[in-house]
């Protein structure tokens, strides 16, 4: 996945291609004028309600308008996702220092919690050992049957 600046550059290039293509298509393929349903290019007639097989200039215009507007919206989203100018390197360093101090405090709390846990674990092991020793002592004190 490309970074946001590369995506923005690609979107702007795509928008330029759409503009150039739309101008070229619209200038290069004017729709011929029709009189009484007759096709001026080959003299054939078609029904007034039938659709031509080649997209008309209006269809091309609508297609390119849709592509251009969608790409412009994508560009707006990409621009909004860029970091603001208010986020300067100085503020970034301050933020990193604050995060570093918070991280050190959290690490200290974690170390203390681990130490307490180790002390409790040792007490539990000692209690289990005493229980086992007393159980073995009880079993050894009972007379055999």
From TrEMBL:
One GO process term, biological-process aspect: regulation of transcription by RNA polymerase II
Gene Ontology CC entries for this record: mediator complex
Highest taxon of source: Eukaryota
Coiled-coil regions, chain positions: 96-127
Any Pfam family matching the protein: Med21
Compositional bias annotation for Polar residues: 33-43
GO MF term (any one): transcription coregulator activity
Keywords: Activator, Coiled coil, Nucleus, Transcription, Transcription regulation
Stretches the record annotates as Disordered: 26-58
Annotated localization: Nucleus
Subunit field text: Component of the Mediator complex.
Similarity-based family: Belongs to the Mediator complex subunit 21 family.
Protein task: Component of the Mediator complex, a coactivator involved in the regulated transcription of nearly all RNA polymerase II-dependent genes. Mediator functions as a bridge to convey information from gene-specific regulatory proteins to the basal RNA polymerase II transcription machinery. Mediator is recruited to promoters by direct interactions with regulatory proteins and serves as a scaffold for the assembly of a functional preinitiation complex with RNA polymerase II and the general transcription factors.
Protein name per Swiss-Prot or TrEMBL: Mediator of RNA polymerase II transcription subunit 21
Organism encoding this protein: Geodia barretti (Barrett's horny sponge)
């Amino acid at each position: 996945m490309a970074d946001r600046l590369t995506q923005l550059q690609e979107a702007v290039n795509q928008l330029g291609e759409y503009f150039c293509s739309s101008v070229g298509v619209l200038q290069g393929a004017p729709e011929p004028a029709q009189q009484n349903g007759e096709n001026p290019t080959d003299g054939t007639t078609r029904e007034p309600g039938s659709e031509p097989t080649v997209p008309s200039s209006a269809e091309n215009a609508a297609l390119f308008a849709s592509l251009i507007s969608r790409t412009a919206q994508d560009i707006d989203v990409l621009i909004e996702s860029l970091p603001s100018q208010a986020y300067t390197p100085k503020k970034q360093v301050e933020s990193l220092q604050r995060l570093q101090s918070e991280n050190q405090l959290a690490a200290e709390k974690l170390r203390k919690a681990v130490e307490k846990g180790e002390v409790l674990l040792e007490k539990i092991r000692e209690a289990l050992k005493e229980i086992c020793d007393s159980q073995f002592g009880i079993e050894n004190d009972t007379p055999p049957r």
